[in-house]
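Q: Joint fold for the lines below.
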Amino acid sequence: NAGVTQTPKFQVLKTGQSMTLQCAQDMNHNSMYWYRQDPGMGLRLIYYSASEGTTDKGEVPNGYNVSRLNKREFSLRLESAAPSQTSVYFCASTRGATADTQYFGPGTRLTVL
Amino acid sequence: KQEVTQIPAALSVPEGENLVLNCSFTDSAIYNLQWFRQDPGKGLTSLLLIQSSQREQTSGRLNASLDKSSGRSTLYIAASQPGDSATYLCAVEGRQGNLIFGKGTKLSVKP
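A: Joint structure:
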């Protein structure tokens, strides 16, 4: 099992460019999450998908969109990148909606110039 | 709004010491509490999960306790080793299944 995989590992964008961060899990998990991690702020939830076909906003959704492509894949899109979106992005998954261990991917380090 | 606080922010100890990391949360209506480890430049690795109905969980040299009524959890690391050096994150599970994280305790174990 690869667990949770994320691509790319690193990315540099210019302000206004767009990109999609990819996440996939091979554990047959139902729920998937996108977090961002910033120095001094900890990890914060951007969007989540409790099950295939559903998505909901988290604490910091502005400037992002998501797609739950199928049960395995959950992508995060930045339509017009801003320097404030410079961060490390983590995808996570869990078997059920609550009360279960979350498994994290290795992260994508994004810099917006 | 749930807030999670971890104290201390950083801790340096000599190898072999037993140590305690603290986590507090403001809303006792949690589903579970998880402790994670994060190495520099890496993702998060789950260490222990304590269900809201449990008082503690143990894994090897790690023991985590939960006191919901006081909004506190502790992570006890016995006989610390240099390989334990990492940032330790505490997180409580919210209603949507998302985790609400503290800012972490950066642990350094000196040989």
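Q: Anything notable?
A: The CA atoms of residues 66 and 76 of chain A lie 5 Å apart. Chain A is about 0% helix and 50% strand.
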